[in-house]
């Protein structure tokens, strides 16, 4: 007994031009829009999901593995740089693992000049900052004298005895 499929007879009766048109249509829309394997649905647009906030979660997970402990009652943190500026954290969250010599300071930071630092904080800087403070003091004193000499640049310039209309007509 032979079984003849009805699909086979239908495929034979389809015009070859129609088959060619179907192939072109599948090639144009099929390859780029298929997101998975052979049996998946076609999509018009491939949607790529961005990881939002995962970086912060990964960082916090890594910090937990290090065994950081939160240090309470830190009201302000200042990190001094070599170029005469410092980072000032007004309300930081300070975490530390003293065994691993790891410190994490998070919060809004602001870059300030050393000349803007309140004098009450100078004793907290330590002996490493003394040469830098002397340089800033000498530079500030020298810079202050230079600024007094160049004050006339900020004044309104004197008027020149020329008629601007005559100059514009000559051009």
Characterize this entry briefly.
Keywords: Transcription, Transcription regulation. With 171 residues, the protein is α+β, with helices and mostly antiparallel strands.
Keywords:
single chain, 171 residues, alpha+beta
Q: How would you characterize this protein structure?
A:
The chain is of the alpha+beta class. The protein has a domain at 58-142: Nascent polypeptide-associated complex domain (Ubiquitin Ligase Nedd4, Chain: W, Single Sheet). Helix content is 39%, strand content 16%. The chain contains five helices and six strands, in the order αααββββββαα. The strands form two sheets. Strands 1-4-5 form a three-stranded antiparallel beta sheet, with no helix packed on it. Strand 4 and strand 5 (102-106) form a beta hairpin. The termini are far apart. Part of the nascent polypeptide-associated complex (NAC). Pfam families: NAC (PF01849). InterPro entries: BTF3 (IPR039370), NAC_A/B_dom_sf (IPR038187), Nas_poly-pep-assoc_cplx_dom (IPR002715).
pLDDT under 50 segments (min length 5)? 143-148
CATH class of the domain at 58-142: Mainly Beta
The secondary structure category is: alpha+beta
CATH superfamily of the domain at 58-142: Nascent polypeptide-associated complex domain
The CATH topology assignment of the domain at 58-142 is Ubiquitin Ligase Nedd4, Chain: W
CATH architecture of the domain at 58-142: Single Sheet
Cα radius of gyration in angstroms: 37 Å
- Counted beta strands: 6
Number of helices: 5
What order do the helices and strands follow?
Answer: HHHEEEEEEHH
Give a short account of the largest sheet.
3 strands, antiparallel
- Alpha-carbon distance between the two ends: 107 Å
Into which percentage range does the β-strand content fall? 15-25%
Biased composition (Basic residues): 40-49
Family: Belongs to the NAC-beta family.
Region (Disordered): 25-58, 134-171
Biased composition (Acidic residues): 147-157
């Amino acid at each position: 007994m032979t079984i003849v499929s009805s699909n086979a007879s239908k495929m034979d009766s389809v015009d070859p031009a129609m088959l060619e048109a179907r192939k072109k249509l599948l090639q144009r829309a099929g390859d780029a829009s298929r997101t998975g394997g052979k049996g998946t649905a076609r999509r018009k647009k491939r949607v790529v999901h961005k990881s939002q906030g995962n970086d912060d979660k990964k960082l916090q997970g890594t910090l937990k593995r290090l065994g950081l402990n939160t240090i309470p009652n830190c009201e302000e943190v200042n990190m001094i740089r070599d170029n005469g500026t410092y980072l000032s954290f007004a309300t930081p969250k300070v975490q530390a693992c003293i065994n691993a010599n790891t410190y994490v300071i998070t919060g809004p930071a602001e870059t300030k000049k050393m000349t803007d630092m309140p004098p009450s904080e100078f004793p907290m800087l330590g002996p490493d900052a003394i040469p830098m403070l002397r340089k800033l003091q000498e530079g500030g004193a020298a810079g202050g004298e230079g600024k007094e000499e160049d004050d006339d640049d900020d004044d309104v310039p004197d008027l020149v005895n020329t008629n601007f209309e005559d100059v514009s007509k000559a051009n």
